[in-house]
Amino acid sequence: MTLEPGIRVVRGPDWKWGEQDGGLGHLGTIVPFDTTNPNTKPSIEVRWDRGLRGDYRIGYEDSYDLRLYDNGTVGVSHVDVRCDVCRKCPIFGIRWKCMNIDHYNICSACYHAGKASLSHQFYRIVIPGATEVLMEKRNASDPIEVKGLFPGAKVRVGSDLKVDKEDVRKLYQGTLKRLEPFVEGFPNTGALVNWPPVGQSRYRVGFKGMMDLKTKEPGLGGMCYRSHLPVLGHPVELECVEGLVVGDHVIINMEENLLRELQEGHGDWVQGMADEIGQEGVIRDITSNQDIMVEYPESSRKWIFHPATLTKVKVPRRLSSVVEVDESGDYKIAVDKTVQQAVIPKSNNSHKRPDGSSGKLVQIMGIFQYASTNTGCLKVL
């Protein structure tokens, strides 16, 4: 699941920021943020429809402040999948696939409006090919009302609308008449506003993270099963069709000419990508079309790659539970269940633990660990 500017969000399970968002059910939008700093903590910037902007946790301190309300606003679509209620095709945003009826899918608007059987269970599919997450029955969940930049909202000039100081729109509030694509393929990213005495005009409400408007009085957007929405940044939502997840270590094992060919339309070719062939990187994000952002820690460079160019690397476990004594009398410590081993001389001083058991302080891959001894083996504690 990509974290692109323009995604619409609501408060999540670990929210502790009071009424910054305007209250339960109020919407916000991920805004442009710095992706070049490798030391950036796992957080994201959001501008709430009421106008306030803040930085929120998406895994930092194992906390998640946000849920994803709509990613159709960044162009996510399930090609050739039709909503079996409203008949719209493709389904933009999250796809809801029925567990009880084969080949039955509905869009988010119909799902949260209570369409189709409420006693049926649905799988949530955030992006095409993503992990299918089974939801509880909707008749066992309590919906909430969502509020924000919806038809009927009274609006003011927002942070991204550049107007002169004398612009009359600063003196009056407008009325949001309807939501529409600001650009084809990006639904609900534009708003038609009647703004006296200027008249009707179109404004950005989330397109590429830009917010031309803020609410004076929020509009009502219908009901929403908030507990069914994905937790933004949570690992279960980050898996893509290739079986890769954020945090995986990967390597490119192919010739440059094949890499160039696969990159066409998937991040495209950028000078310097060939230098990463054979180098180990870490997956930092998965985009809406399932391309993979990989960071190379040694160079701090980040690239977008086609998933087929990447091979998952098994990261050796740093410790094992069993340590043998070899024929020389040295302690042979298995670091991984493969052939990787570290040998620690038996001359290391023995130590007493607080519980009275004896053991040795051993160094495993540069890390000192305490190990207890018995006949013929050591056990890492």
Question: CATH homologous superfamily of the largest domain?
Answer: SH3 Domains
How far from one another are the termini?
A: 38 Å
Low-confidence stretches: 317-381
CATH architecture of the largest domain: Roll
**What is the structural class?**
mainly beta
What's the arrangement of strands in the largest beta sheet?
Answer: 26-25-24-30-29-28-27
Strand content: 35-45%
Strand count, sense and barrel status of the largest sheet are:
7 strands, antiparallel
Describe the structure.
The protein has 381 residues and is mainly β. It has helices at residues 108-112, 256-263; strands at 8-11, 28-30, 43-48, 53-57, 66-70, 77-78, 91-92, 95-98, 105-106, 122-125, 133-134, 144-148, 154-157, 174-180, 190-195, 199-204, 213-217, 219-224, 249-251, 280-286, 292-296, 301-305, 311-313, 322-325, 331-334, 341-344, 350-352, 358-364, 367-374, 377-380. It folds into four domains: 1-158 and 216-234, SH3 Domains (SH3 type barrels, Roll); 159-215, no CATH class; 240-313, SH3 type barrels (Roll), CATH 2.30.30; 322-380, no CATH class. The chain contains two helices and 30 strands. It has a seven-stranded antiparallel sheet, with no helix packed on it. GO terms for molecular function: ubiquitin protein ligase activity; zinc ion binding. InterPro entries: Mib_Herc2, Mib_Herc2_sf, SH3_15, Znf_ZZ, Znf_ZZ_sf. Residues 78-130 form the ZZ-type domain.
